[in-house]
Specification:
With 220 residues, this protein is of the alpha+beta class. The protein has five helices and eleven strands. It folds into two domains: 87 residues, no CATH class; 97 residues, Gcn5-related N-acetyltransferase (GNAT) (Aminopeptidase), CATH 3.40.630. It comes from Nonomuraea wenchangensis.
Length: 220
């Protein structure tokens, strides 16, 4: 698999994990992951897994009515009736060796997860991250002097570790990304990181490289 394919697969598995935590789940096929029911807020109804995926591979497995969204992992699809919501880049960091972190990291618990969610989404979202997620992924809070200043989600796979939901509320984004790299290295040494960002500049300053374009499509 290419780095972009590994990243797309991780992202699809993360979407499936989120759906299962909300009581539903998607289906994996050779070229795409799809959810027959509408997914939680911010999560796509389909994720392509191969640059050979076609519109039929995704639209046949989802509710393609208004509000449907598709993560076109290789920016290759043509989806009539859909508009591009945003474009982004896959990012990749080589395998890591643990080093110092500018923040102290702790795993979220069912009790602290609401605080993490409020910080991540500026208080605009509640209940998106059920406690059931904590059995499968690492939801991390970065703290300085006990104050939650940044956070991320790490999704460990056999070959890579996914990085998502990186945020900085009480520190600058460079401190957050430096901390994310250190946290991933400490927990999953020797495994490369993958993820995506609309603006990857901060991640690039901390050892990441881009690994190809993606698009998210939305049905109006």
């Amino acid at each position: 698999m290419t780095i972009a394919e590994l990243a797309a697969r991780d992202n699809a598995e993360w979407c499936d994990t989120m759906c299962r935590a909300h009581g539903s789940g998607g289906a994996f096929a050779e070229r795409a992951w799809t959810s027959a029911v509408r997914t939680p807020l911010y999560y796509p109804d389909a994720v392509t897994l191969s640059p050979a995926a076609t519109a039929a591979d995704v639209l046949g497995g989802i509710d393609a009515g208004p509000g449907a969204s598709v993560k076109d992992s290789f920016a290759t699809l043509d989806l009539p009736g859909f508009d591009v919501l945003f474009e982004a880049r896959w990012i990749h960091h080589p395998a890591l060796v643990a080093g110092p972190s500018p923040v102290g990291w702790e795993e979220a618990t069912p009790g602290t997860l609401p605080e993490w969610e409020r910080a991540c989404f500026d208080g605009e979202v509640s209940g998106l991250f059920p406690a059931a997620l904590l059995a499968e992924v690492s939801v991390l809070s970065g703290r300085i002097g006990g104050e939650l200043v940044c956070g991320c989600v790490l999704t460990p796979r056999e070959r890579v570790v996914g990085v998502s939901n990186v945020f900085a509320t009480g520190c600058d984004e460079d401190t957050a990304w430096a901390g994310v790299v250190a946290a991933a290295a400490a927990r999953f040494p020797g495994r490369p990181l993958v993820g995506y960002e609309q603006d990857p500049s901060a991640a690039l300053r901390h050892g990441f490289e881009t690994a190809g374009p993606l698009r998210v499509w939305l049905k109006g």
